[in-house]
């Protein structure tokens, strides 16, 4: 998780988007709730701050961000989509909307998905090595 690079406005916007994303399939699973709680804690953002921002405003904030921030947001959304084992059409559509808005290329989307699918193969790697591999993909 490279979200420490987000400024306060980006953190609020990210949390608004991710909160909407987990509820898009009308069922928030335990794994999704757990990751949301971790994000809130790590980013030090309150529920009130998240609720005070509309989806449109959040996307505008994130769209003004640097390219690496946009890629990181997409990466985190993808991870949340995959965490519960269900990959619903509504989630795919949401990810496509974000990718289009942020100009995320098809090749980057595939590389990021492959990163998640290869996580089991990276168990013998250190957390730092896995992070370095992700940074390489994002750049």
UniProtKB/TrEMBL annotation:
This is Tellurite resistance protein TerB. InterPro entries: TerB-like (IPR029024). SUPFAM superfamilies: TerB-like (SSF158682).
């Amino acid at each position: 998780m490279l979200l420490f690079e987000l400024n306060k406005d980006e953190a609020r916007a990210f949390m608004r988007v991710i909160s909407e994303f987990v509820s898009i399939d009308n069922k928030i699973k335990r794994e999704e709730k757990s990751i949301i709680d971790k994000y809130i804690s790590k980013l030090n953002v309150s529920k009130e701050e998240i609720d005070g921002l509309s989806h449109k405003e959040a996307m505008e904030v994130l769209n003004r961000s640097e390219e690496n921030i946009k890629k990181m947001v997409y990466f985190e959304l993808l991870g949340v989509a995959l965490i519960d084992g269900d990959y619903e059409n509504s989630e795919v559509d949401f990810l496509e909307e974000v990718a289009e808005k942020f100009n995320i290329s098809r090749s980057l989307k595939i590389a990021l998905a492959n990163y998640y699918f290869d996580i089991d193969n990276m168990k013998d790697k250190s957390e730092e090595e896995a992070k370095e591999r992700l940074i390489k993909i994002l750049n």
